[in-house]
Amino acid sequence: MNFKRKCHLVVLCLALTRIALAESSQGTLLDKIIANVDNQIILHSDLETAYQQYLLQGGKEVADLKCRMLEQLIINKMLISKAKQEGIVVEKEAIAQALLDRMQYLLAQAGSEARLAQYWGRPVKEVESELREKIKEQLMLDRMRAQLIKDISATPQEVKEFFEALPAQARPYYPAEVAVREIVRYPQVSQQEKDALITQLKALKIRLQNGEDFEVLAQEYSQDPGSAPQGGDLGFWRLGELAPAYEAAALALQPGEVSDPVTTQFGCHLIQLIVREEDRYNSRHILLKYSPEALGIEAVKKQLAQLRAEILAGKVTFEQAAIKSSEDPLTASSGGLLTGEHGSTRMLIDDLPQDVYFAIEQLAPGAISEPILFTTADDREAVRIIFLEEKIAPPQANLAQDYAKIQQLLIDEKRTTTLQKWFERVQASASIHVASEYQNCELFR
């Protein structure tokens, strides 16, 4: 086999969980071997799953996409084969921890082991065993790749020569940086609105006591789009992860019992405990949310519009107003300042939340947005005004200012070259066979 194109540094990291899901959910689907690398097989389902995963993640269809993916799968197998020859060992403890993390994630998504088994169409332990082997291979692949590139570095002289050799038009631009502040207000819910929702939930509890099924009522009445289709099942959560009032009510129940209506910042809940374990529990709920009208959103917008006018008139600075008036505990104490990675006061414009990005897109430094309705990370309705304090236009890379970024570019290039040479060297001695339908791929001619 002759690789006519340059192999890229990126080693395809297959979504191991979804491969297991795909294989198990297609138990009756015919599968076949499409490549063999040093007696390690690549199945048609491996390629199809990688392809579908790429599309699900927003990847674009390009010419010879499956050929390129098959190449990467073959490279992975070459790395694993070499790792075995080199005696690279993955500790059982590392595999067990990675498997535990993966299974906990899957159980949280599915809600219960029984539901996971139902989705897979076979016992969880059976698929878990297959997943263990895939995780072992992935860890071995990661370690082999890390070993091949571990000693690669770039000296200041090399970085300087690399940068100076780049044509002016090839020198990268980095995203603009901004300093942004916000003032956030949460609309208040009237007791009348809370009482109305509680009355509705009490009526539903009476129906449950008369024998109706919680899951059926949750599917019909719950306003939680994430759990309603699953009969209100929230899956497993560890202690301290859900709203305190919700958790306290759920843990006061015996499995199968239903709470009285419980009020949180998200709305009013009727809760049924499914099961409790030592440090986690599974419950289902019926959620009735507060209506936008009841939240008084327009009233909050008017409050923030008045505060904005006072700031623009010079009566108070934005920072002072944020400290005094913002209801966001994460930013209020710093005068509403949004911080970047490691607490930096400037953020790359590409790293801003989408709604903040669009809010400041047309603002000049020193300007304040109109009040904006948004949904917080914990799914609450809130309103904010945003102040663009500073904006630094995207400069072309400068050796003195962007040394660390340019050095990383050079290191990445050297890693690519190192892996490329390794692939070409190992390819000559590797035993690689590809199914006839892929022989027309340019890579395998």
Please supply descriptive tags for the structure shown above.
445 residues, alpha+beta, Chitinase A, domain 3, four-stranded antiparallel beta sheet, 15 helices, 46% helix, flat
Description:
With 445 residues, this protein is an alpha+beta fold. The protein has 3 domains: 16-155 and 408-444, Orthogonal Bundle (Triger factor/SurA peptide-binding fold); 177-188 and 294-392, Chitinase A, domain 3; 191-291, Chitinase A, domain 3 (Roll). Helix content is 46%, strand content 15%. It contains 15 helices and 11 strands. It has helices spanning 16-25, 44-56, 65-85, 92-110, 113-120, 124-149, 156-165, 191-209, 214-221, 244-251, 292-295, 297-312, 318-325, 354-360, 403-429; strands at residues 33-37, 40-43, 177-185, 233-238, 262-264, 267-276, 280-288, 347-348, 372-375, 381-392, 432-434. It has a 4-stranded antiparallel sheet. The protein has a 4-stranded antiparallel sheet with strand order 4-7-6-5, with helices on both faces. It has a 3-stranded antiparallel sheet with strand order 2-1-11. Helix 1 packs antiparallel against helix 6 (124-149) and helix 7 (156-165) crosses helix 15 (403-429). It is flat, with a radius of gyration of 28 Å. Residues 1-29 have low confidence and may be disordered.
